[in-house]
Amino acid sequence: AACTSATAFPARTIDCARGPAPKQDRSIRTKALVLRAAAELFAARGFRHTSVKDVADRVEMTKGAVYFHYPSKESLAVAVVEHHYARWPELLEEIREEGLAPLDTAAEMLNRAAVAFRDDVVVQAGARLQLERPEIDATLPTPYVDWTELLTGLLTAARDEGRLREGVEPAAAARSLVAGFFGMQHISDVLEHRADIVERWREVGGLMFFALRA
Ligand SMILES: CCC[C@@H]1OCC(CO)=C1C(=O)O
What we know:
Layout: E1 2-4, E2 13-15, H1 22-45, H2 52-58, H3 63-69, H4 73-96, H5 102-119, H6 121-131, H7 145-160, H8 170-192, H9 197-212
Helix pairs in contact: 1-2, 1-4, 1-6, 2-3, 4-5, 4-6, 5-7, 5-9, 7-8, 8-9
C-alpha cells in the first residue's frame, strides 16, 4: 500500500511494502558520507589545504559526483558548520528529558559539549572553520550567539527560581560561560588536541558554576 514516509523530507509517497525509494536514500547516504569526509579533512588540515578533489578521493568518488551534492568547497564548509551547530539543540532536547533544574541543565549541556568537542569530528571541523572564517568566501553562521542565547535562557530561569547567586546578571553570566568554554576548548586543542578537554572543562566550568550558584 502507498504511504507517506513521515521521516523523509520533502515528504514523499513510498510503497511501504517495498520500503523507501532506494535511489533517493542512496543519495542521502552519499551526501552524508561526503560531508563526513569533508569534516575529517577540514578538521585535520583546515579549509585552505583541503580541496574538493581530496574529499572526492577520500570517498572514492569523482569530483563531479561530489559537485552534484555540494557545488563548491565553500558550500561544504557551510554545511559542516551548520551541522556543527545542529548538534546543540539536539543535545538540549536529550538533556531536557532528564528534567534537571535550569542551572544543572546548563552545566550538563556544556559537560556534554566538551565530550562532543573531543569525539565528534563534525564539531571539531566546525570549530576550526569558524576560526578560518576570514579565508572562507561564504556566509557562515555567526559564532557563539546561539550558545549565549541558550545559556541566557537557562540562567534567567535559574534566577527566577532563586538558584542564581544574588547580583549575577543572566546574559552577562552566559557570555562569561561561552568565553570560558571557548577559550578552554581552544587551549586544550592547541596543547593536547582536546585529549584533556573534559578535565579542563571540569576545572573551568567547575569554578564558574561554583560562582554562579546561589
Ligand atoms: C560554547 C562556547 C562557544 C563554542 O565554542 C567553540 C565554538 C566554535 O566557534 C563555539 C560557538 O561558535 O558557539
